[in-house]
Design goal:
Length: about 550
């Protein structure tokens, strides 16, 4: 840090201390706690957990269903991205695909399960339309459906983004050279995207493996490791030692995922120059892929349609007369508005301070003369936060901050959100800042400006659009998260997602859907507002 500008050194030191105290220390204490037997340090806790047939069954179930959902999500995401990027489907249909597949990202995962129940249950909306129950939704089937819906948007975003850096000209060249369909498809489409496809698979697997919201609603008797961890920690007698062991075990698949991603990076390559080649029309291809893609999107929408019907009928599904009684009664409840206000507070502060932390870390990495090792450390922060599941992070906070002044406060929830969602906004800022003119800071110094002044006057205005995207990402994810904060909320700091979990116990599903609608339209409104300001920024540049 000796050669760094003083302001940059301060930013780096503050970022490093933040992650040291709020990421590394809690995880270290969690790890040490897993070896604490009460009589010293040893492997007794691990032996006990691994000898527990219920836990090993839950772990095995989680691995199996997560692999299945990751395979399906990755395949479907690839199909949707291919339809959008490599066909001549009408642009309005492509736009509908892009928008429709991302809608689940605006809702908490615990809502997915209730929507599946009210759509495919014995008296579900879709069941009644079809005249029979087509699947048993409690257990494996319901979890698989929920996990696929949950992970598909993220997998699509990743693969769709990678398609933007693929040169379609080589598809045409391959065909002109007489390559067969499979050979051409593998060499010109699969091969350039193998890193993104692998990344989508790993991300889908980790998200499914660590999610708590969907099993909480449709898990039934099919136990998974996330619900077992929840029961161990919030049962009648919390077992911190066993809970810590389970949390450490949940880190292992995520760690293997990171290793797989690092291995797949060797297959990545770039084109010297991208062309805007349009592929020739193919009626069979376009109709088949367009129809299949729209079926996927319409299927997702059909699952969530019931969420907008149930609170507005007298007695679903028996009396479908329209009423606003449930909706107005829920909104007029002081308790509901209180937790909704809590969610807004948490999300706004998480968005603001999270963007500051992520942007500051990206500045150190891309716009300073810091040593390579120091710049690499910010990437390490990003990699670790991306690896640690939300429930593990929340449990580590519960153990580390137990008895501290932060326990039971909004601050600990906000900090947890910042750490949990750090990776994507950090990468957004890093990619944006690395593309700006590297000579701006030097020019500023020659004109007598300090480095921090150049950042404020030049760099920040030119990356303001990215900062808005970062704010939007933090806000939306903080509104819908449950896994990361389930161990941290109290009666005073309850948020909407934790209230939904509470309402589940009393079977108040109308209130659950009303709260879900509130979250959905809050996130939609935030996206619209941020999109409006983004357009204004783009038009002024």
């Amino acid at each position: 840090m000796r050669n760094m500008r003083p302001e940059a050194a301060v930013i780096f030191a503050a970022t490093a201390l933040f992650f040291l105290y709020f990421l590394f220390n809690p995880l270290a204490v969690l790890l040490m706690n897993s070896f604490n037997t009460g009589f010293g340090v040893g492997l007794a806790n691990y032996i006990s957990v691994l000898n527990n047939s219920d836990i090993t069954l839950a772990l095995s179930n989680s691995l199996g269903i997560s692999l299945a959902s990751a395979l399906i999500s990755t395949f479907m995401a690839f199909m949707l991205a291919y339809s959008v990027n490599c066909t001549r489907i009408a642009e309005p249909i492509k736009s509908a695909i892009r928008t429709g597949v991302l809608l689940p990202m605006l809702l908490p995962t615990i809502t997915y399960g209730f929507a599946i129940i009210y759509s495919f249950g014995k008296q579900g909306f879709i069941t009644r339309l079809l005249g029979r129950e087509i699947i048993e939704i409690y257990g494996f089937n319901g979890l698989l459906m929920g996990y696929v819906i949950y992970t598909l948007p993220s997998a699509f975003l990743l693969i769709n983004s990678a398609f933007g850096y693929m040169d379609k000209k080589f598809i045409i060249i391959s065909k002109l050279m007489g390559d067969g369909f499979l050979r051409s498809f593998f060499n010109t489409v699969i091969r350039p995207l193998i890193g993104a496809i692998g990344g989508a698979f790993v991300m889908s697997f980790v998200l499914s493996f660590t999610d708590f919201g969907i099993p909480a609603s449709v898990g039934g008797s099919y136990s998974v490791i996330a619900t077992y961890l929840y029961q161990a920690m919030l049962g009648a007698i919390p077992d911190f030692n066993s809970g810590s062991v389970i949390a450490v075990l949940m880190l292992i698949p995520a760690a293997f995922g990171v290793l797989l991603l690092n291995y797949l990076e060797r297959f990545n390559f770039h084109y010297d120059k991208l062309s805007n080649t349009e592929l020739p029309g193919n009626s069979f291809r376009d109709i088949a892929l367009g129809s299949a893609s729209m079926l996927v999107v319409l299927g997702i929408m059909a699952v969530f349609l019931v969420m907008f019907i149930t609170p507005f009928v007298k007695s679903f599904p028996y009396d479908m007369s329209f009423t606003t009684e449930f909706f107005t009664a829920t909104l007029s409840s002081g308790g509901i508005l209180y937790v909704f206000g809590n969610s807004l507070i948490v999300s706004i502060f998480s968005a603001v301070f999270g963007t500051i932390v992520a942007y500051g870390a990206a500045l150190v990495n891309t716009r300073t003369n810091a040593d390579k090792s120091l710049r690499l450390s910010t990437d390490v922060f990003s990699m670790i936060t991306n690896t640690v599941p939300g429930m593990v992070l929340g449990l580590s906070y519960l153990v580390f901050f137990n008895g501290s002044s932060l326990k039971g406060t909004f601050a600990i929830i906000i900090i947890c959100n910042i750490i949990h969602f750090f990776t994507t906004p950090y990468l957004m800022a890093k990619n944006s800042l690395s593309k700006l003119n590297p000579a701006w800071e030097i020019t500023g110094e020659l004109m007598g400006d300090k480095w921090i002044n150049t950042i404020a006057r030049v760099i920040v205005p030119n990356s303001a659009s990215t900062m808005l995207d970062m704010v939007s990402y933090f806000f939306i994810n903080s509104m819908i998260t449950i896994s990361a904060i389930i161990f941290l909320v109290t009666a005073r700091t309850a948020v909407v997602t934790s209230k939904i979990k509470e309402l589940q116990h009393f079977a108040n599903f109308n209130e659950v859907f009303v709260l879900s609608i509130l979250i959905f339209f809050t996130n939609i409104s935030f996206r619209i507002i941020s999109g409006y300001f983004n357009k204004k920024l783009s038009s002024n540049q």
